Recover the amino acids of this structure.
């Protein structure tokens, strides 16, 4: 078995989030959140379609009869098989609050959480959309409602309100829903903010660390047992996909370094202002063999780190690692490069690995 590190897509998003792999699609989809778009890829990572769902596309999941359900800026929307978007009634009228991350529970109900653009403490909520269209308030107060995922036995869910610097755990059953919230692990502030997460078939929790350049795996007991170090700061979310769900896809954001040091995932004052302050442009490199990598994360060093991680994973889990990279759009021109150098950021911070894969024996 060998370890592969490869770029997965060309630059596609400003604020990449919420990757989803569904058997019906046979490929990956994720959001360019603050553009309001869902990006549909083919199996090779080529963009097939950019579906505009609204001013914000926070999270989405497939529907049983085709199409998707989406968390948009101030509520939910349904997308049919023809990709026509139907926005449901807004849940609030505060224009400072938007939807963020979400997930579907084992009984087919879609959850999506909110946050304030200016990170007002407690302004967020976690909502549940029933198949019939009813909406239930699940968590009445959050600052940055983020990752949510269930275990394979359907009895436990993990949840992140990023500004608590914790991953919390809930008990779950179909009738009572999420109950018994309690801390699972704490993430030290200097390590970044917990953001999106997923759970593997062994019950391990994989969490993206925004501002922390890493994805971590915590075992079911809360112990840290694996770290994927990435040459990009703003790591946003992860999900398993590919054949036998043996690859871990990781998204990142192109928000600037001064926003990263503020430790605020998705904390743009508004989508328009974010785009104006940090414009996007086509990549400097169009081929996988001539991409410039950040000097502080030389590709050789990165490969060495992946090989070391692979050996550690083999010892712990009997698994080997395969790594791919998805790139976000990079900022424009020499002026942008000078600004990044003054802030201590690489001149090519967007050549960033966003897709890693954890291979299991026979997978």
């Amino acid at each position: 078995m060998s370890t592969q590190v490869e770029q997965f897509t060309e630059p596609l998003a400003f604020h990449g989030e919420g990757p989803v792999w569904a058997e019906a699609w046979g490929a990956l989809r994720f959001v360019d959140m603050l553009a309001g778009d869902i990006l549909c890829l083919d199996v090779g990572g080529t963009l097939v379609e950019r579906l505009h769902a609204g001013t914000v596309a926070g999270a989405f999941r497939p529907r049983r009869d085709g199409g998707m359900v989406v968390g948009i800026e101030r509520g939910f929307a349904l997308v049919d098989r023809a990709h026509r978007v139907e926005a449901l009634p807004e849940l609030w009228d505060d224009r400072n609050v938007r939807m963020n991350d979400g997930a579907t529970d084992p009984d087919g109900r879609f959850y999506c959480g909110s946050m304030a653009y200016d990170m007002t403490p407690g302004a967020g909520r976690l909502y549940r959309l029933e198949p019939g269209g009813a909406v239930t308030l699940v968590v009445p107060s959050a600052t940055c409602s983020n990752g949510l995922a269930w275990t394979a036995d359907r009895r436990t869910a993990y949840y992140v309100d990023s500004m608590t610097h914790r991953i919390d755990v809930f008990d779950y059953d179909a009738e009572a829903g999420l109950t018994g919230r309690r801390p699972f692990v704490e993430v030290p502030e200097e390590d970044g903010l917990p953001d999106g997460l997923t759970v593997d078939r062994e019950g391990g929790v994989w969490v993206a660390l925004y501002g922390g350049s890493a994805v971590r795996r915590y075992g079911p007991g809360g112990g840290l047992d694996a770290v994927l170090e990435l040459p990009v700061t703003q790591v946003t979310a992860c999900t398993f996909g590919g054949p036998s769900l043996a690859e871990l896809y990781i998204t990142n954001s192109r928000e600037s370094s001064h926003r990263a040091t503020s430790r605020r995932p998705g904390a743009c004052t508004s989508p328009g202002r974010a785009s104006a302050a940090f414009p996007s442009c086509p990549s400097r490199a169009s081929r996988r063999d001539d991409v410039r990598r950040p000097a502080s994360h030389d590709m050789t060093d990165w490969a060495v780190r992946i090989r070391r991680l692979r050996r550690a994973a083999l010892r712990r889990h009997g698994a080997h690692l395969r790594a791919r990279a998805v790139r976000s759009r990079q900022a424009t021109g020499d002026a942008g490069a000078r600004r990044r150098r003054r802030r201590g950021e690489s001149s090519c911070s967007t050549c960033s690995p966003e897709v890693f894969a954890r291979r299991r024996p026979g997978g």
Observations:
- DSSP finds four helices and 27 strands in the chain.
- The two ends are 12 Å apart (CA to CA).
- Confidence is low (pLDDT under 50) at residues 1-5, 257-363.
